[in-house]
Amino acid sequence: MEDNAMTGTVRGRTMVEGNGITRNIHNFKFLCGLVLWHDILFAINVVSKRLQGVDLDISGAMEQLDKAKSYLQSYRSEEGFQNVLKNEYKWAEELHTEAIFPPIQEYKSHRRSHFDYEAWDNPIKDPKQQFKVELFNQVLDCAIQSVE
Length: 148
What we know:
The chain is mainly alpha-helical and 148 residues long.
């Protein structure tokens, strides 16, 4: 983005892409996702190293998998979510990023109800709750299922 050797449309396109990437990286939601993935992958890496070892012990590997699963299940709690946010507030401060979730853009969709008993889903209005439901819980559910 700061390369002065580029000129013309290539420089303009590169600057636009660079600014977009920078803006997305400094997004609080993106940084929370990084903290979440770091914690998950750290737990999985321990099991992976054990499974790749030359002196593989199946019972020890199974025990390690159970520990990883237990860790992920306990992480998928309100306390785990608050820990992610707490760590993220520290990162946001270091990166001089505003520690708020971006507001939710509301889209109105008109869906026809085919049956009388169908109820409308209530959309999530809180951006923090939306992150928890749509990313935090889903990523952890997928990780837990993969370990199982």
